[in-house]
Structure formats: C-alpha cells, structure tokens
Amino acid sequence: MPTAQIIPFAEWRPDMPALSQWAREALNVVPAEESYRPLNALAGVSSALGSACQGAAWFRAPANLVKMFAGDSSKLYLLSGTTWNDVSRTSVGAYAPGGDGQWRFAQFGNLAIAVNGIDAPQKFDLAVGSNFTALGGTPPFGPPPVGTYITTVRDFLLMGNIGSTPQRIQWSGLNNAEIWGSIAANLADFQDLPDGGNVTGLLGGEIGLVFQETSVRRLSYEGSPTVFRIDKIANDLGCSVPGSVAGVLDLAFFLHKSGFHMVQGGQSLQAIGRGKVDRTFWAEFDETNQFRCSSAIDPVRGLYVFAYPANGSGGVPSRLLIYNWRSGRWSRAQVNCELLFGGVSQQGYTLDQLDAFGTLDTLPYSLDSSYWTGTVSLLLFGFDTNHMSGSFSGSTLPATVETAEFSPSQGTRAVVRGCRPLIDGGSPQIQLGARETQQAAVTYGPPVGLTPAGLAPVLQSGRYFRVRATMNGGDSWSNLQGIDDLDARPAGAQ
C-alpha cells in the first residue's frame, strides 16, 4: 500500500555521499525553508552598454529619486528610463580600467563615487550632476588616492588597495570626501596593513570590514588620535576572489580558497559552504577568469547570489550559486550574465508605455511585476551577454530538483510503482531513478506526467531510489516540496 510519509526534495549538498539525507540536484530554483521556489530568468530590457559591464550600483538621490550607474571598459553610464546614457568625464579622455578591471561605487552624501584602481576617482553630484568629474582634494590637502575598492564607514569615505601599495587602506576627512592625506585636524589618514596580503574587498556601515588575501579585519571608529581601531578577526583566511564580497544587515559573504564564508556582526565567521558546495564549486570553476565573478544580495528573499565562469564557458559567467542565509540552504542555476548587482525598480509605466516592450505575450515581466508599478522595490539585477540590464523577473526557468536517495525496503530489493508529487502548479515531469548497489550508476526511467488524481505512475525496481521532478520554463508554480503516497513493495510481492 502507498505510504503517506513525505519524502522532501532535500537540501542540495553535492559534496556529500549519494546515500545520505541530501539531494544531488537543485537546478534553477531558489532554496526556501522547507521547499524550493522558482527562479525567474534575467530579462534585459535596457539599452546596451558599449561593451561588457564591469560594475554597477544604485543610490538614493535628493527628492527621493533613485539613480543607477554602470561602467564598462571606457565609459560610465546613468540609467534614464531604460536608456543607459554616457555620463563619463568630458576631459582627460576615456577611462582605462582594462578588460579585467572592475568599477566599484560608493555613496557619500550627495556624491556617487566610482573607482577602478587605474583612473583618478570620479564623482557625480546626485542633485545636479550631468557628468562624472574627478574627485577633488581640498587645498591645501593632497589629492585622493587611486583606490581599487571603496565604501563608506560611518562619516568617512574609505578606499583600499591603493596604487602601488596594495596592502594600504586610506580614509577621507570627517564628513568630507575631498580631504585626503594624514590630517589630524580632520581625522584623514591611512594605514599600511602589516600582514594578510593585498586588500581584496571592503564593506562599510557603522563598522568597516577589510578583506585581504589571507586576513579579514574590522574597523571600529574611536576618534582622535587613533580614528579607527583595526582588529584582525580572521587569520590565514581571507578573500581569494574579490567579486565574491557582498554584505547586508550585519552579514558579509566572501570566498576563500577553502570555501564560502559568512561574517556575522563583524566578528563571528561561519563556513557556509563546507560539506555542501565548496568541493563541487572549485572542481568546475574557471579560475583563470576569476575577475569575471560578481555577487549580489537579494534582501527580500534573503539570498546571497554568486556568479562565476565554469570550465568551458569561454570566460563568460555561466553559473550561479544561491545561498539562503535564513535557511542555510544552497541551490544552483545555469544563467549567462556579465554581472550581478543589487538594483532597484522605481519608475512606473502606463499600459500605453508598455508598447515599447512588445505585446502582452512577449513582455519580459508579468503585468503584476513590481518592475512596472512604480513602487520602490529592491531587486536582484544583472547584465546579460548583450550588455543589457534587467532584473530576474522574467519567465520561470526550467527547474530540476531531487529527493535524497532512499531504500523503501531497508536495503532489500523493491518495486516502486508510483508517487504523488507535492508541487503546487505547472506541469511537472517525474522520473524515478534506481540502482542495485552503491557502486552502480543511477538509471532513470522515462519522465511521466501526472494522472488526473495527481499521481506519477513511475515504475522501477532496485534497492536504492530517488525521485526527480522537472518543471518546464514558463510554468507557473510556487513551491516544490517533495513526494508522498509512495507505492513501494518488496520485489516479488503482488
């Protein structure tokens, strides 16, 4: 008789042995607390940049407006509606971050500031600006440093990996992004970090985090004369891939050679990929193109998302790893994108204005998407391989999940004749995988749809089984939970 016990689509831990409580696949889905939810396609709706995007960010401007910036190998852009307008400096010439360089942005009051480690830092006045100009150095103080990384810590602008001194961090004067040097009266200063290697990332807020190749340090404001207390919170553990650094609330995420890690509260570290995804990631990561990696936060769904090039992808980021920090679960996706970043949707559209995006059948986002409504919504954004930006609000991607491997007859042979998928929409296709020994490969039967009663009439014999569910792209569904009503009996029984 069928059993009513629920067998969940288990947590995806590809680093674990096959006969464990973990699943081997969770593709193109978002991990939730007790299920998997859909991942929507990246739908580029903007005009294209001149070349591949090498950095992007959004900032709150005066009058409660939002401004979104991006940079490529020679220009800086401002988004107006769906058009990326060139707002590069009008003198000195094109920027030169190089094909492997990155633009990084920070907000300081009404200034959006961009750095790439090669050109002089650039500023854009969020209130009245029309083009970027060089960030100044208020006389008689020196010019700003040429930083590779940038953030805001309390009332200071902080840069790291400075020119020919890659282990240096340097901060501006108090409440002034254009006072630089070692100025006791204004608290501007710098620090060459004595060990830990090059600076590979910065995160700001009430405290600052400095990521180095083999160290993580915390900056805490103390005032004159020290300005910042600098404490090492990780030794022989740092950020190996600069594009992996992302932060939200009191959490910070980064990738080290040993795997993915999370810092909480500026002090405690957790290895979030160990025994889960670390080995699988490093086996398929195209490390020669690590400069193409990027990461972003989806604060609404509680996700850290990391994009990277896989071996054989020609250097194009073609994989996403998705971590839900609320549930501690991972999933993966196959998506080609140039860059991930946290974006925001604010501009509203009328029905007449939707004509520019195609017909109702070809709109990149559903009509109820926050992209169209004009409400301010924090969204996961990206640039596709055509250099066009958009959010992950397109059609649902084709998805695949699995149960963990199970033995319904406790190690003896069994026949499985059906199950009931706990899936709340779409047209799922169900496959039953089976094998006789742990040395054998899993053999999957043909995919089957559901009967009018909601059952999947699969049929296989073996000792070890797993159930795979596949959803079509564009299907409408909310949760992939697992299976129940498993019809399994000992082999030879009637």
Give a short overview:
With 494 residues, the chain is an all-beta fold. Helix content is 2%, strand content 42%. The mean pLDDT is 93.
Write the layout of secondary structure elements.
Elements: E1 7-8, E2 26-27, E3 29-31, E4 36-38, E5 56-61, E6 65-71, E7 76-80, E8 83-86, E9 104-108, E10 111-115, E11 122-125, E12 133-134, E13 147-153, E14 156-162, E15 165-171, E16 189-192, E17 199-203, E18 208-212, E19 215-223, E20 227-235, E21 246-248, E22 251-256, E23 259-264, E24 268-271, H1 278-284, E25 294-298, E26 303-309, E27 317-324, E28 329-334, E29 339-345, H2 370-373, E30 377-383, E31 389-391, E32 399-402, E33 414-423, E34 429-435, E35 443-444, E36 460-462, E37 464-471, E38 480-490
Antiparallel strand pairs: 1-38, 2-32, 3-4, 5-6, 6-7, 7-8, 9-10, 10-11, 11-12, 13-14, 14-15, 15-16, 17-18, 18-19, 19-20, 21-22, 22-23, 23-24, 25-26, 26-27, 27-28, 29-30, 30-31, 32-37, 33-36, 33-38, 34-35, 34-37
Structural domain tally: 2
Strand order of the largest sheet: 2-32-37-34-35
Mean pLDDT: 93
Q: How many helices?
A: 2
- Regarding CATH, which class of the largest domain? Mainly Beta
In this structure, how is the largest beta sheet organized?
5 strands, antiparallel
Number of distinct beta strands = 38
Second rung of CATH, namely the architecture of the largest domain: 7 Propeller
Strand content: 35-45%
Distance between the termini: 11 Å
Gyration radius (Cα, Å) is 25 Å
CATH topology of the largest domain: Methylamine Dehydrogenase, Chain H
Report the principal-axis shape. elongated
Helix content: under 10%
Low-pLDDT ranges: none
